[in-house]
Amino acid sequence: MESISTKNAVVHFNSEVYTELNNYIKTKKPSKIFVLVDTNTHDYCLPKFLERLESDEIAVEVMEMPNGEEHKSIDICTGVWEALSEYNADRKSLLINLGGGVVTDLGGFVASTYMRGIPYINIPTSLLAMVDASVGGKTGVDLGALKNQVGVINEGQLVGVDTSFLDTLPQNEMVSGFAEMLKHGLIYDEAYWNTLTHLEKLDISDLDRLIYESIVIKNQVVTSDPKEQGLRKILNFGHTIGHAIESYFLENADKTPLLHGEAIAIGMILETYLSTKVCGLSNEHLAEITNGILKTFSKVEINKADQNHIIELLKYDKKNSHGVVKFVLLEAIGKPKLDCVISNDLILEAFDYYAN
């Protein structure tokens, strides 16, 4: 697959990942190389990665963090910053983030802030990170259960998408990443959406092509609006309510935490319903989108008490301004609309639609 140029970096695929990564190291000659992994990628991805890494006698240090969204925190950042300092990392050191979205988001933030910024490279190992978290330069961590409240936009030096790492993923993680691919179709390309909702016509050999297409869509959006002043906001479709649901399930001990994509799938159904009320989306498209998402994602019970708490969390959404919650909704598949204001009563209606 041909490499994709982003605004400040390049996304390389499969065998090209290691050719370009090793060329980068030979050319830039970092003072030290640090590889950030979590407990899962340490066991399942790191050995293969280190076999392909040519460090030219540059010292390589591995730093391991716990896996899971609950560890995407300032406390973990502090531990990584301290480890970098203890290992005498300087501004010419290189940080390689080998992992899913938690590792790439947190590692990118650590690199962007350590000594006011050191170079970093993302090697995403989950489907979610490949199609979403590793592209576009968004880095950051959660503030308690509130998603991505602290961070910066700063692209890495390159991105390496080696789809063979997907062989290490459990099924639920693959499904989680698929939500972002569905979103890319809904906000940008109806033909892509139609392909994704008819997977029975495809086989596993088509996966690389679909991942590539998702990255192309995301890159086209973020390249035109790198700082999220306008068009890039469309990538938040399903995320206004979805992030609130994810946060609520994460912070409540009596709930089973949802993976990011599981929460976003619910958010997309709810926000599709809202789209029929304020943007003129047809009921036919509502049914098509709902059924398309529920082909892959199981329903989750969200009772009335949960709904009110989730609505309360909407005030923390990063698209808000002047105390007003703003949604990205759909006028049609592939035609999003920005900055929609929705009443709480309509949101409760959307929850009723999802439940029934």
CATH class of the largest domain: Mainly Alpha
> Helical element count?
14
The H/E string reads EEHEHHEHEHEHEEEHHHHHHHEEH
- Helical proportion, percent range: 40-55%
Q: Which CATH architecture of the largest domain would you pick?
A: Up-down Bundle
CATH topology of the largest domain: Dehydroquinate synthase-like, alpha domain
Number of strands: 11
What is the CATH superfamily classification of the largest domain? Dehydroquinate synthase-like - alpha domain
Summed over residues and divided by their number, the pLDDT gives a mean of 95
Descriptive report:
With 356 residues, this protein is α/β, with parallel strands linked by helices. It has 2 domains: 4-169, 3-Layer(aba) Sandwich (Rossmann fold); 172-355, Dehydroquinate synthase-like - alpha domain (Dehydroquinate synthase-like, alpha domain, Up-down Bundle), CATH 1.20.1090.10. 47% of the residues lie in helices and 15% in strands. It contains 14 helices and 11 strands. A 4-stranded parallel β-sheet has the order 4-3-5-6. A 3-stranded mixed β-sheet has the order 1-2-9, with helices on both faces. A hairpin with a 4-residue loop joins β1 (4-5) and β2 (10-13). α6 runs parallel beside α9 (207-224), α11 packs antiparallel against α12 and α11 (260-278) packs across α14 (344-355). The radius of gyration is 20 Å and the shape is globular. The model has no long low-confidence stretch (mean pLDDT 95).
